[in-house]
Amino acid sequence: MTYENLDAKLVNSLLGNGRASLRSLGEELDVSVTTVSNHLRDLEDEDVVRGYTPIVDYDKLGYDVTAVLQLKVEGSALQEVTEKLRAEKQMVSVYEVTGDYDVIAIGKFTDTDGMNDQIKALLSDENIRESNTSVVLNAVTENEQFELDIHE
Q1: How does DSSP assign 88-136, residue by residue?
Q2: How many other C-beta atoms are found inside a 10 Å radius of the C-beta of residue 90?
Q3: 9, 30, 93, 151: least surrounded by Cβ within 10 Å?
Q4: Average pLDDT, stretch 93-106?
Q5: pLDDT per residue over 6-37, tens digit each?
Q6: Are 13 and 72 part of one and the same domain?
Q7: Number of separate domains in the chain
Q8: Do 83 and 108 fall within a single domain?
């Protein structure tokens, strides 16, 4: 058995079932449990695979308001602002970006009043020069991952 593309195949298998046993992964990939274990450990050590977490449908838990915040930030305060956003439990993604804005953050909220309160608190930060907030009307796709290409 050649191990070419084994890591990509292993990642793809885990995307399909992150709770798969080493034995079932070995059977699926036609390699030994030890080989799977070694490759998986290497992927974890290299932070390619950073954990095994459930995919939560926040809408079903009452967090059905999604807001996209675009922020212009004082240059020297970029790290401070992104860390502040990261610390907010309802911010599910925070990005430093190029373009008209410096930061894009995505938050999940139970209602528009809670969203409004949290956003106003964030925007009281003197390091935020300008903001634009959009409320998502319909999430066409969200939290999607994609399988890696395998070149054979």
Answers
A1: STTEEEEEE-SSS-SEEEEEEESSHHHHHHHHHHHHT-TTEEEEEEEE-
A2: 17
A3: 151
A4: 97
A5: 999 999 999 989 999 999 999 999 999 999 99
A6: no
A7: 2
A8: yes
Residue 2 reports pLDDT greater than 70: no
In a domain, 146, yes or no: no
Percent of the chain with pLDDT over 70: 99
CA angle at 82 for the pair 62 and 73, rounded to the nearest 5° = 115
| Same-domain status, 27 and 62 | no
**105: containing domain:** 58-135
Task: Report which of 55, 48, 49 is spatially closest to residue 144, judged by C-alpha positions.
Answer: 55
One domain for residues 72 and 27: no
- Specify if 1 maps to a domain: no
Specify the 3-state DSSP secondary structure of 79.
Answer: helix
Query: What's this model's pTM, rounded to 2 decimal places?
Result: 0.82
Same domain, 62 and 99: yes
Secondary structure of residue 22 in the 3-state scheme: helix
